[in-house]
Amino acid sequence: MAKGDDALARKRNRVRRKRLRSSENAVSARVAAIIASKRRRKSGKRRGCEGMCFSLPTPDDPFNERHGKKHKDEEATDDTADAAVVAKDDNPKKDPNTKKQPPAKAGTKTKSKAIREQATETEVDFDRPSKFLVVCLNAIRDAVAPEDGGGSIHGAGDWGVELWRCCSAPAPSDVLDTGGSCATVEQTAWLVSTACDIIARKERLGMVVSCPFLLHLVPSQEKAARVRSICKPLKPLGIHSVSLHPGASIEHQISGLKTCEPEFLIATPERLLELVSLKAIDISGVSMMVIDGLQYFLDLSVSDKIFSIRDAISSILQITIFTDPSDQSVASMAKNLLRGRITKLSINDSVSSRSAFVTQSVHFCPSEELKTSKVKEILEQILQSHAKKSSKVLLVAANKKNAQHLSSSLKLGNCTVTDDSHGNSFTICSSVGLMNVHVKDRENMAMTDIEEFETVLVVDLPPSVDEYVEILTGVARQTIGGEVHSIFCNTDAPVAKLLAELLANSSQVVPEFLQKMESS
Fold first, then answer.
1. Which parts of 183-302 fold into alpha helices (H)?
2. What angle, rounded to 10 degrees, do the helices at 303-312 and 328-337 form?
3. Around Cβ 464, how many Cβ atoms within 10 Å?
4. Is 52 exposed, middle or buried (0-12, 13-18, 19+ CB in 10 A)?
5. What domains appear along the chain, each with residue ranges and CATH number?
6. Which residue(s) pair with 175 in the sheet?
7. Per-residue confidence of the chain (520 residues) as pLDDT tens digits?
8. 110: CB partners within 8 A, 6+ apart
9. Closest to 266 measured CA to CA, from 206, 339, 213, 196
10. Among the listed residues 31, 32, 5, 30, the one whose alpha carbon sits nearest the alpha carbon of residue 16
11. How far apart are the first and last CA of the chain?
12. For the sheet containing 358-364, what is the strand order?
């Protein structure tokens, strides 16, 4: 006898359930039930009692005629809070009933939270980005850049994963990006998706997430509109963002802020401080702050407002700064803003971007025999420039023989040798300061964590400028400033032209002797 349609459907369902249970992406029984219910509802096979079993009469529906279903007017209230805060340019047509609408119901946030829990259910560690991060990136890709298939957004994956590691670590570090004047669309997408991932993980661990969680400072209304268009696709995932700028009246924004608690806040410094002074919003619990275009804020003379916003936040704050490294005043302001451990990043692969805020000095030495005395002279200069401060200096020699010669010749009466198995580390003590010197040869540079050193002295220039660039771009990655000193002898003449071009492209001073050697 042929089997009926019901029997075939039951068999298909059994096979589907077995496949879900055995797959690596299997979900919990609760989530599977939600998915099955949604599938029945969409196919029109929902049971009649399914909508009323768990619903109770309410004052709005005393006879339970709606069976727990929302009225159409109630479903529209979720977009009301967002429309009240967005600038006029973003949403020129406003609903006349918007101000009369009540705040969004809690059911929407519960549904969004369930989506985040489903994406992060099996990933509560901080070792790798969760599936929810990819979900957020794909949502932004489909809304902002659907024509290229998300290639541009996912193409910044190396930079984005490094940013995620800095922000998501148990002890997060501040980030200084020197790849451009402000954040690109790809960088903003990774940044806000990282913030979403952190929120989802904290909720998964039962932690309370303050609102607003992310504060994105922008210099203009146009930039605020662009950033908010990237954050908008995250709203179905439970991440609500608002933009505050002079493009809308302050009364309009105050009334809008009363109807919602945004996770992301995109604001210009002046308007944000106005709203904070009127107690329309509280930013004391912000966990992440982005300064998008530090050079622009300096040009607008609003640096004092940036520091006021920074001081108004009392929680443990992770700061990300995007800036152009061409101006040294940017470095001094960044030093005052970033108080903890930092990580330098750059989506731009140019040497000038990767070596931002690192000072290069080339010293001339007539012969190889005088190098030891020249090294002592440079070390004394470094001691004088870092008075009353402990300095950590790396000396780079050509080979082990030269490194051992340096170690033995520099151990004078005012030097004490520290505990080191190779004898290539010692401390210089003087009335001016303290200097911890490490001597390494180029062959063992791969085993040296050069990022820890703020000052590097290249005693023997490598035959290839690329090796020098590798040292230059690796030094002082966890501090704002850094120094690279190098000793140039007559034997280094083959690299004179390339070295002079490198200094010029990095906005560094080209010594006169190097210019003469380049022209000859």
1. 185-204, 221-231, 250-257, 269-277, 294-299
2. 10
3. 12
4. middle
5. 30-69 (no CATH), 81-92+105-348 (3.40.50.300), 358-519 (3.40.50.300)
6. 320, 343
7. 567 888 888 888 888 777 766 655 566 667 777 777 777 766 665 554 444 444 566 766 766 666 556 554 554 444 443 434 443 344 444 444 444 344 444 445 555 555 555 554 444 455 677 788 989 998 998 888 665 545 567 767 788 889 999 998 888 999 999 888 899 999 999 999 999 999 988 888 888 888 899 999 999 999 999 999 999 999 988 899 999 998 888 888 998 888 888 999 999 999 999 999 999 999 999 999 999 999 999 999 899 999 999 999 998 899 999 998 877 788 889 988 987 788 888 888 888 888 888 999 999 998 888 888 898 888 888 888 876 566 788 888 888 888 888 877 776 545 554 544 455 666 666 666 677 888 888 887 777 788 888 899 999 999 889 999 999 988 888 888 889 999 999 888 889 899 999 998 888 889 988 888 877 6
8. none
9. 213
10. 32
11. 99
12. 358-364, 482-488, 455-458, 390-397, 434-441, 425-429, 415-417
Q: Are 289 and 319 in contact (CB under 8 A)?
A: yes
Question: Could you give the CA distance from residue 477 to residue 454 in angstroms, rounded to a whole number?
Answer: 8
Q: Return d(Cα 15, Cα 10) in angstroms, integer.
A: 9
Nearest CA among 338, 342, 431, 326 for reference residue 387: 431
C-alpha 269/C-alpha 245 separation (Å) is: 8
The one-letter code for the residue type at 255 is S
How many other CB atoms sit within 10 Å of the CB of residue 170? 5
- Listed residue (220, 266, 217, 258) closest to 239, CA to CA: 266
Asked if 231 contacts 239 with a C-beta cutoff of 8 angstroms, the reply is yes
**Alpha helices (H) along 355-399:** 371-385
Q: For residue 77, give the 3-state DSSP assignment.
A: helix
Q: Rounded CA gap, 30 and 307, in Å?
A: 47
Question: Six-digit token pair at 263?
Answer: 């996770």
Residue 126 and residue 108: Cα distance in Å, rounded? 28
State CA 113 to chain mean position distance: 24
CA distances from 326 to 220, 290, 419 (A): 21, 20, 41
Strand 358-364 and strand 482-488: the pairing is parallel
CA–CA distance, 73 with 102 (Å, rounded to integer): 10
Per DSSP, the residues of 267-285 read E-HHHHHHHHHTTS---TT
101: tokens are 């609408």
